[in-house]
Design a protein that fits this description.
CATH architecture of the largest domain: 3-Layer(aba) Sandwich
Number of strands: 14
CATH topology of the largest domain: Rossmann fold
Structural class: alpha/beta
Mean pLDDT: 95
Distance between the termini: 42 Å
Largest sheet: 7 strands, mixed
CATH superfamily of the largest domain: Thiamin diphosphate (ThDP)-binding fold, Pyr/PP domains
Number of helices: 12
Strand order of the largest sheet: 3-2-4-5-7-6-12
Helix content: 25-40%
Strand content: 15-25%
Oligomer: single chain
Order of helices and strands: EHEHEHEHHEHEHEEEEHEEHEHEHH
């Protein structure tokens, strides 16, 4: 057993897969000699050499395009975008080429590439370093969108993403990079993409979240427990494809649901989950679905960041509304 932070777990997964598969290469800005801005790729250049660990210019569109070309010709590139807010120049390549390569070539070509990006707020950085725009990628057919919430899941989901035959956007919540350590085996075992994970079993209400907000959601579940409310916590983990079956099973059991995410409310993944619950499990709901999200504004500077990000009290308040909706007393 080893004990690692999330960023160390990402580094370990990259090293594990590069050692076991010579087709895996990593590329991005400052990822070689400097080991990446968060040190997620530290020591990989020394271990695997400059033919497999490629420092690139500051050109995100080029990084994505290069990775697509590599992927269609037998390599398995893992491209790092230094911050999610810098990914927009790469969108044309991802939307017009990576996401539709299998369809365009009628199955002749696949695009087994991973685009890694630190994302989300909580580290007192400017707005281009703190965005949470996972919905942009989830809306594109052909892309998978994966967001780990713990070191163990980061390690195992990244292994699964690298082994996937199609493009995966792998978003790493940077405020969790060094927050906690977890013990796990460096055994090369991957977790499946497209599956939710039940982090806590409960019977009265379902709390659904992903990424960094899983931390506050877990704390809220503890506080609700102290009030006699048994909360089940679902870590979505893969935004696309979305495992609604797990969420619906939980909501059919509890009858109530709160969805928590750091992204803005409008047109976010929470809206999709809520819509599908209305379509497929309306009869099971004892109260309207509640969403706890960031407001529809640009991420503020650090002095107001605490007002922007969902917190534990926001989640508890939303959960209690589910019990007050029809006159029930929590």
């Amino acid at each position: 057993m080893i004990e690692k932070t999330m960023v160390e777990a990402v580094n370990l997964a990259l090293a594990q897969e590069m050692a076991s598969d010579e087709a895996v290469v990593v590329l991005g800005e400052d990822i070689g000699r400097n080991g990446g801005v968060f040190r997620a790729t530290v020591d990989l250049l020394e271990e695997f050499g400059p033919r497999r660990v490629l420092d690139t210019p500051l050109a995100e569109g080029m990084i994505a395009g290069l990775a697509i070309g590599m992927a269609t010709q037998g390599l398995k590139p893992v491209a790092e975008i230094q911050f999610m807010g810098f990914i927009y120049p790469a969108m044309e390549q991802l939307a017009c080429h990576a996401s539709r390569m299998r369809h365009r070539s009628r199955g002749r070509l696949s695009c087994p590439m991973v685009v890694r990006a630190p994302f989300g707020g909580g580290i007192h950085a400017p707005e281009h370093h703190s965005e949470s725009t996972e919905a942009l990628f989830a809306h594109l057919p052909g892309l998978k969108v994966v967001i780990p919430s713990t070191p163990t899941r980061a390690y195992r989901l990244l292994l699964g993403a690298i082994r996937d035959p199609d493009p995966v956007i792998f978003l790493e919540p940077k405020r969790l990079y060094r927050k906690v350590k977890q013990r796990f085996e460096d055994d090369g075992e991957a977790l499946p993409l497209g599956s939710c994970f039940t982090s806590r079993v409960g019977s009265d209400i379902t709390l659904v979240s992903w990424g960094a907000c899983c931390d506050e959601t877990g704390q809220a579940a503890e506080l609700l427990g102290s009030r006699g409310i048994s909360a089940e916590v679902i870590d979505v983990a893969t935004i696309k494809p979305l495992d609604m079956d797990t969420i619906i099973r939980s909501v059919r059991k509890t009858g109530r649901c709160v969805i928590v995410h750091e992204a803005c409310a409008s047109f976010g993944p929470g809206a999709e989950i809520s819509a599908q619950l209305s379509e497929r499990a309306m009869e099971a709901l004892k109260a309207p679905v509640q969403r706890v999200t960031a407001p529809d504004t640009v991420v503020p500077y650090l002095k107001q960041e605490h007002l922007y990000l969902p917190d534990v009290s926001d989640i508890v308040t939303a959960a209690l509304k589910c019990f007050d909706a029809f006159g029930e007393v929590a």
